[in-house]
Amino acid sequence: MVPISYYLVLAAILFSLGIAAYLVKRNVITIFISIELMLNAVNLTFIAFAHQWNKLNGQIFVFFVMVVAAAEAAVGLAIIIALFRSRQTLNVDQVNLLKG
Amino acid sequence: MEFSYLWWIPLLPFAGFLINGLVGRKFPRTVVAAIALLFTAVPFGLVLKLASTMFASGGPEQISLAGAPWISVSGFTVNFAFNVDHLTLLMLLIVTGVGFLIHLYATGYMAHEEGYWRFFAYLNLFMFFMLVLVLAANFLLLFVGWEGVGLASYLLIGFYFKKDSAANAGKKAFIVNRIGDFGFLLAMFLIIAQFHTLNFTEVFAQIAAHPEWQGGMMTAIALLLVLGATGKSAQIPLYVWLPDAMEGPTPVSALIHAATMVTAGIYMVARSHVLFAHSPTALSVVAVIGALTAIFAASIGLVQNDIKRVLAYSTVSQLGYMFLACGVAAYTGAIFHLMTHAFFKALLFLAAGSVIHAIGGEQDMRAMGGLRKKIPVTFWTMTVGVIAIAGAPPLAGFFSKDEILYQTFASGHVVLWAIGLVTAGMTSFYMFRLWFKTFFGEFQEPAHDTHHGDDHSHAHGVHESPAIMTIPLAILAVLSIVGGWVGIPKAFGGSMEIEHFLSPVFGEPAAVAATASHPSEFGLAAVSVLVAAIGFIFAYVFYYKKPGTLGALAEKNRGLYNVLANKFYIDEIYNGLIVVPTLMFTRLFLAGFIDKGVVDGTGATLGLTAKGGGYLARKIQSGNIRSYAGWLALGAAVLLIAMTFGLKAFGATH
Amino acid sequence: MSSALLSILPEVVLTVTGVLIMLADPFFAPKASKKALGWLAVLGTLGAAGATLLQLRTHQILLTFSGSIQMDTFSVFFHLLIASIVLLTLLVSLDYFKPGATSHSGEYFALVLFGAVGMMLMTCSVELLMVFIGLEISSISTYILAGYRKGQATASESSLKYFLLGSFATAFFLYGIALAFGATGTTSLNGIASGLSVTAFPTMAFLALAMMLVGLGFKVSAAPFHVWTPDVYQGAPAPVVGLMSTAPKAAVFAVLLRITATTYSSELLHARWVWLIGIIAVLSMTIGNLGALLQKDAKRMLAYSSIAHAGYLMVAYTALPADSIAAAAFYTAGYAAMNVGAFAVISQLGGYDEPLRTIDDYRGLAQKHPVLAAALAFFLLSLIGIPFTGGFFGKFYVFNAAIGAGHVWLAVLGLLNSGVACFYYLRLLTALYSRKLGEEGGEFEGSSPAAAIAIAGAVLATLLLGVLPGKVLGLAQRGATVQVSRNR
Amino acid sequence: MTIDSSILSLIVFFPTVGAILLALLPANPTLQKWGALVVTLLTFLFTLHLPAHYQYGLTGYQFEVNVPWIASPAIRYHLGVDGLSMWLVVLSGFLAPLGVLISWRAIDRREKLFYTLFLLQQTAMIGVFVALDLFLYYGFWEWSLVPMAILIATFGRTDKRAKAALKYFLYAFIPSAILLVGMLWVYAQTGTFDLPMLQQMGASHSISSNHAALWLASLAFLVAFAVKVPVFPLHGWLSDAIFEAPTAAVMVLAGKLGLYSILRFSFGIFPEQSRQIAPLMIALGAIGIAYGALVALVQTDLKRLAAYSTLGHLSFITLGIFSFTVAGIDGGVYQIINHGISGGALFMLLGALYERYGTYDMRELGGVAQKLPWMVTLFVITALSNIGLPGLNGFVGEFLTLSGSLQTIYVAHPMLWTTIATTGVIFGAGYMLWAIQRVFYGGMGRRPDEVSGWDLDAREQVALWPMAVLFVVMGVASPYWMRAIDSFGAGAAGRTAVTDVHVYPNPTKNLALPETPVSSTEGGAH
Amino acid sequence: MHLALFFIFGGLAVLAALNLLLQRHPINSALSLVVVMMSLAVLYWSLGAEFLAAAQIIVYSGAVMVLFVFVIMLLNAGEEERTRGSKIASIAGFPGAAAIFCLLSFVFLSEGHKLGLSHLGGSLDEASSNISQISSLLFTDLLLPFEVTSVLILVAILGAVVLAKKER
């Protein structure tokens, strides 16, 4: 018997680690990976709450999040490829032509 | 309306102005002159007609002519309205009569000038405004004429606008007059606030009905009016424009700056005598200003070398007399002197013009001499003028000046009387000085010095002026002799007709005059004649007998001489104390600090602040995704905290 | 027609058209002009607009698909708005891709249509799941559209920034949904609305709303979540910017309105929400306007301006329900008309490769293209908020609502901001009408006929919204009444 | 639709129609010029309908048209004129053709743009004068900025034109934004934008009971208007805008709109607050008069000189209207018209001078009178009108405003402020005459020496002489105009029982000794 | 038992996430994420979401992560350079992240008593399996989202084609 709040805190930890990773990582792909981490944290929250409320909606939401994440991954990686083609770099710190 | 022809008195000159001003350029000179003369002569005729009506026994003492409203707002209306009483009539006679003569003279004098049409247009314009001034039935209409003559004076002084000095003098005249007008305006505002009308009859009736109103507001109004008068009538402290005004053509000096316009201040004070009667303070101020101006200007006149400037300072000095007369409530004396002065001063100026004309534009008396034979008519007429102003009986100046001095003495202002007396001596001296320097001594071949004085470079050889100029001289000379006879006091066996004539306006002669003994009046007259004789003797000695002694004297008293020659440095003092500081203050503080600094600076500072904000906003926009994520994270955190714990800090209780 | 089909008819029409375009695309040579497909898309959009009008005529509120779709005047308003924006964008884009510029011009039209499907779905969904999916469809398609000019180094950067930051924000939004679900046990907006007032977890509800606000704030580029906007707009193709600065924002604002409506029943919640939004509004206006002051690039400047406009719009959210909803809805319409128009002109001037970017490049434009310049000037005036333009009435209603609700300070700050704003709009405007041409000699491209129609349409819309706002406002007010009546 | 109810709409929108026509016509300079001239002349003719059919005995609005426009918020298309606005409309109509005439040669490129904007500006301006719905008014008010800003930005004469245009726009727009807040607040309180209704509410103190809020709202109104006037020290934009703007634009740049708005809206909606702030405004007016004249005195550029002169003249009006005396308000309104004509003529002449010598710098000019006699004639007449020579129009207005300011009961020392204000007549003469001297008199300046100028041509004479004639006619026949104005002024000065305003019993008490006449029973100033 | 399961896999997930953060090579990060996902799958299962647990492994860590790894390999991404591109990320971002974490944990823990306890593998409805419940829901009530997802995927495909395809 684990309190639901434990799951939620775990999700919060993962979410924050995702943010942190986003901030730390220089490689575009890794940053993208961090986002996936955040999404996973949210998924965990959903499932925990679904358990709490004893409702399937939460779980189904997670299912859709997975689909969306897959779609995003396809597009995101395509964008990254396009970027790499034009810039020859994956380092975000060097992607700053647009500023000011 | 029986008297509706009065409207034409000012309007005809105005028509002349319009015709000459708009299309005169295309006319030949004779036509221009004819128009100008015609539109001056007819009003003169109308005035004569009017005079005959009013002089006739049983004739009206006062004629009121109300026209359309000019300014009309709820609770306050000013009409175009004329009011003719004996004072006005006298002024009308002087203005139109002397005005016509001077017009006549000018047709000859200006015959070869460029802008002939312009000159006569301006001259007619002047006539228009001057006539409005004297005819006006309320302060505001008077003010129209008042400012209008100032405008005409401005235009005529600056007639030779190519010359910087002329343009400057015109401007100076206008601006100094405006300082006076500033006072006049304020006086009118106060009158409106107090009486809700500007009509002479109503205002004075209200005042007269309340003998208990003394000082206070009355003094304030009166003093402000006096400020106006000092401007127009060239009194201390605003006399400075008049000597410079001699930059204008000589007929202008004669008409405007001697005979008519400059007397407007006297006229206005006399017109407001009911008001002044309620303010002894103001009267004293007037008297003191007058006396001081008289002697002050006379002392400067002692050493001037420009013939017209001598006459100009003399005018200022004589106006001082009139002021003095007003100040001692001897309004009749003031008006009397105003009239005689109009005759002889116009004569003097015209004669001086004739002299200048004769010798090709030279105005410096040091370059003159021995003209007696060359231009006899001018010489003789001028001699009459000089004697008249010097105050020798039985010429006009004697009676009027004597009346003023007597009234001053009789009213107990002994010091002022003494000042007046000394001034009389000085007047005699500088006039004869002028006379001797111009007509006696060695004849000098005129140097054609075109930059100096009127532009008379056409003159070849010294010659007498044409008849069209000498005839007015002659007429004025006659008037200068006989003009005073209307005011021969009883002590001399006269009947003081002018006093009776003006009594509907000023009331019966003051008790002091009535009770004064004839012997004292006779004695005083003798003293003044003596003083005038002393003046003559000095002039005779220094400038005829032993020319050069005075030079030595001046050398010894270099300091005093310089002070006088430089007109007490008043222009410089005004410049240094008022004009330059004002300009510096404006340039540095107002335009520099307030306008550029505060007014513009506030806007600029706000703009810069906004731009600084823009710079910061751009700084945030570093282009780095991780930074952006950082902002997002921070923003999210703040938002979450704010939402969770409420916004008590912001007082969000709603 | 079944009510279920009717309720999503516009989306269906658009989807079908999009699919048709995709099917037809292979029949064209890769780099050939695909204008025909564009016209097809235009037809589809017109069809969708027609379908929306059909919805409008039913005069009823349809709750379909197990309560996840709600067809009401509110949704119809935004459907029409989005359809109009898409229509103008398509018209502007018809000649935007010159033959040979890219081999994907066919997909472009399909993507625009699919994106529109997502946006429309957002506005008619009352189920957060549908909102989320709609949001993702619209987001992903705009991510792609932003990076369309692959040849440009800035394009992929723009796309990447949009994508990475967008996903980041989506995670927050999603977390918010999760928390809302946690607090109320449902992801249906109607359920949440009734659940919020009785929830056992009020703090969680606060967090949920805040998290959603982060995600949605990002999408409408409200400060402090605006950082992506200038970079993305600058790198994206002009017609796309016109689209993505208006249509998805309108959709998100609609969602935000619906979410705001859920808070009305909880006094405490609503008070906090209002204050937060007020502060976000002020921040957005200020940062947006200040940031724009020093910009040289016209698109970038307008990007900052769009941040500011998001701020103005959010002012409406602080007011009482009925007025504010109508005001906000009207504002989105006014803003859409002028902004799409402005970017339409810019896209015509700049062309695909955008040789003319900075304000200096626009110098003297009025001499070369007086009509285009006048149109742009008009849009700029509307953006400033000069009366008799849509922009003015938008602001007018918004601030009127705020003052009506007693938030005079917001109105003062907002209008002061609009004062500051006129500085940079005018800089562009005066450049248009200045004497000298730009340094490069200013070889502007003329506008294509289709784009001319679009620009004329935008001008007309802006003008109509400014002179006769009654019709649109009436629709918005009817929509607002639906929202209020449901939640009160 | 009778002619009386549609004439205002016609006047307002006819220039717009003209502008659209011009925009559609080809950019042929001659065509554009003549087109603009015809349109403006026709508009002027239409405006003349107003004085011809105005019912002078009545107060209140005439030629009204009042139809609903927008349901929510309640906005109506409500136009009308009264004694205040009628002559302003005619004045705007009168100035427009003159503006076209004077631009004939000065605008030698992009005529189409110029005249289109010029006509749009006219619509906005007249619209401001006739709108009786607060919202409608605001619309015109804001719109009046735009064509003007573009005109300055496009046709300004130096490289700083864009900056000047921006400055002008920002100065006017930012306070207008606050004005909008004030308007919306008033609407929130009253539920109406209709001016006559608001005036009634203002008079009966029923707009709001919140005094602080009313104060703030009245300030929001006043500041926006005061900047537009401009009232010292809010004139930061004036000098630069006038310096840059083309003549036709300068003629309508300052004065009218702001002052009218103060009279109509500040006084109308906030009668009490306006009186409370009167001491400040009177002081600013008086200082502005002296300040404008003094600063004008030290300018070397004619346009800047004229700009500060404008400031001075407008300050007379501020002083007058805030005295809340009949004379002050009547004179102020009259002076608005005068300034439109006299100031307009001055700028026209300066523009003509610039066409000839390409400079406004007095240091480069001089002796021009020798070459251009007509020019100098008209210039002197105009200058005299500007410095308020009696018998010309300027005097009537100045005299009334100053006499009004002395009678005001809303400041403690009316004499002091009136005295300061009256110094303006001295300095005013100073800078004007000095300018005339430096430009026209004396020796030949550098430019006139190099460039052969030409005297006023027929077109310019046609444009200028009507103004010169008006100077005189308005100077001697003021009642013709005043009767309409007075019906407004008497109302505005005496409007409502004003509570809560400190009133000083006798305006000239400070000067008067106890025994002097105190005829306060007659109560000239109410 | 349940608690141990939670702590073991929860701990694993956190450690893997930390590893993700600390590793410098993208591949390592990607694989760390796979570990996180695997651990979460266990936790999903423990919360009664069997279907999602399976999907997590098959779809997420299987398909999606493979895509990541594939792209990493395709682009031949090497170790990250530690460039200093952003100060804000650490100045503003980390405090932000920490604050978010603290706030969330605080809220969850303080409201924890109101939240219930989880029971291991507790199916939501004893009568049918998790999968059948989900699928019945998916094809009835949630049919529309399901269908709309197809549009999403269509967009994604389009995007991938448009962006990743080389222009000839």
UniProtKB/TrEMBL annotation, chain A:
Enzyme Commission number(s): 7.1.1.-
Gene3D superfamilies, alphabetized: 1.10.287.3510
Regions crossing the membrane: 6-24, 31-54, 60-84
UniProt GO MF annotations: NADH dehydrogenase (quinone) (non-electrogenic) activity; quinone binding
BP term (GO), one: ATP synthesis coupled electron transport
InterPro entries: NADH_UbQ_OxRdtase_chain4L/K (IPR001133), NUOK/Mnh_C1-like (IPR039428)
One GO CC term on file: NADH dehydrogenase complex
The keyword Oxidoreductase belongs to this UniProt entry's keyword annotation: yes
Subcellular location: Cell membrane; Membrane
Main location: membrane
This protein's UniProt keywords: Cell membrane, Membrane, NAD, Oxidoreductase, Quinone, Translocase, Transmembrane, Transmembrane helix, Transport, Ubiquinone
Lipid bilayer topology: Multi-pass membrane protein
Catalytically driven reaction(s): a quinone + NADH + 5 H(+)(in) = a quinol + NAD(+) + 4 H(+)(out)
NCBIfam families attached to this UniProt entry: PRK05715.1-2, PRK05715.1-3, PRK05715.1-5
Quaternary structure annotation from Swiss-Prot or TrEMBL: NDH-1 is composed of 14 different subunits. Subunits NuoA, H, J, K, L, M, N constitute the membrane sector of the complex.
Function: NDH-1 shuttles electrons from NADH, via FMN and iron-sulfur (Fe-S) centers, to quinones in the respiratory chain. The immediate electron acceptor for the enzyme in this species is believed to be ubiquinone. Couples the redox reaction to proton translocation (for every two electrons transferred, four hydrogen ions are translocated across the cytoplasmic membrane), and thus conserves the redox energy in a proton gradient.
Family membership noted in the UniProt record: Belongs to the complex I subunit 4L family.
Protein name: NADH-quinone oxidoreductase subunit K
UniProt source species: Terriglobus albidus
Underlying gene: nuoK
